[in-house]
Design goal:
It is a single chain. By secondary structure, this protein is α+β, with helices and mostly antiparallel strands. The protein has a single domain, classed as 2-Layer Sandwich (GTP Cyclohydrolase I, domain 2), CATH 3.30.1130. Helices cover about 30% and strands about 30% of the residues. The chain contains four helices and four strands. A four-stranded antiparallel β-sheet has the order 1-2-3-4. α3 runs antiparallel to α4. About 25% of the residues are buried.
């Protein structure tokens, strides 16, 4: 990722029904998503052309839609789903996605639970 530029979306909120417990799927909860997209922004900066970059407003909507889709058990799966949405954009070289589950069913006091994945066009 060295030498690449970055677009960052922080704190996207999605209401979804992911989790291994029945009450999580029934009631749902808020998931918070952070996305870093690694790309080359030189052409966009030189041309001042939105088509040479990724429209971050559209990407934000796509990410939230991906999180709110059909329920899964693991936030690891949600993070992978979001990474694949990001990599559909031809300008994206790689992405780092963090899925936060601040209302996770944990029996001790905590501030947050999150999973982070790093994905690139080569599958790593």
């Amino acid at each position: 990722m060295s030498g690449l530029d970055r677009i960052t979306l922080t704190g996207l909120r999605a209401n979804a029904h992911h989790g291994v417990f029945e009450h999580e799927r029934r009631t749902g909860q808020v998931f918070v998503i952070d996305v870093d997209v690694h790309l080359d922004l030189a052409a966009a900066a030189a041309s001042d052309d939105l088509d040479a970059t990724i429209h971050y407003g559209e990407l934000a909507e796509q990410v939230v839609a991906a999180v709110e889709r059909d329920p899964v058990d693991l936030i690891e799966t949600v993070a992978e789903r979001v990474a694949q949405v990001v990599l559909l954009h031809p300008a994206a070289h790689s992405t780092t996605v963090t899925v936060h589950k601040p209302s996770a069913p944990i029996t001790v006091p905590f501030a947050d639970v999150s999973v982070t994945v790093h994905r690139g066009r080569d599958g790593r």
